[in-house]
């Protein structure tokens, strides 16, 4: 497991496409979401825009993490944490998917916090 520091960051940007697709689907009012769901504030389209913005920010941070940028690592940690909170508000629309995304966010947060330090990045190269 000498390459453990690179496992999570490499898979992390690829997973971010799901937030972008989820946001676009919600904006388009796709039929995959639960009908008549009640939200804390806003509607399905508003939460779709929020998910889309977080997905794009996560893709940007993921590219930075792959390039070994420490600022992108901290930005990714912040955006992943905010996305997990966003997914909690998205639960009324698509419960099982939101819980899956929250779980993946927690795993990616762990990977960035535990294996994303400068020492691990330098040891992997």
Distance between the termini: 14 Å
Largest sheet: none
Overall mean confidence score, pLDDT: 78
Shape: elongated
How many discrete domains? Answer: 1
Enumerate the spans where pLDDT stays under 50 for 5 or more consecutive residues. 1-10
Radius of gyration: 15 Å
Helical segment tally?
6
The proportion of strand residues reads: under 5%
Task: Name the helix and strand elements from N-terminus to C-terminus, one letter apiece.
Answer: HHHHHH
Class based on secondary structure composition and strand pairing: mainly alpha
Question: How would you characterize the overall build of this protein?
Answer:
Helix content is 76%, strand content 0%. With 125 residues, the chain is mainly α. The chain has one domain (4-29, 42-117). The chain is elongated, with a radius of gyration of 15 Å.
Annotate the secondary structure layout.
Layout: H1 4-15, H2 17-27, H3 44-66, H4 70-90, H5 95-115, H6 118-124
Helix pairs in contact: 1-3, 1-5, 2-3, 3-4, 4-5
In short:
The chain is mainly alpha-helical and 125 residues long. It contains six helices and no strands. The chain has one domain (4-29, 42-117).
List keywords for this structure.
125 residues, mainly alpha, 6 helices, disordered N terminus
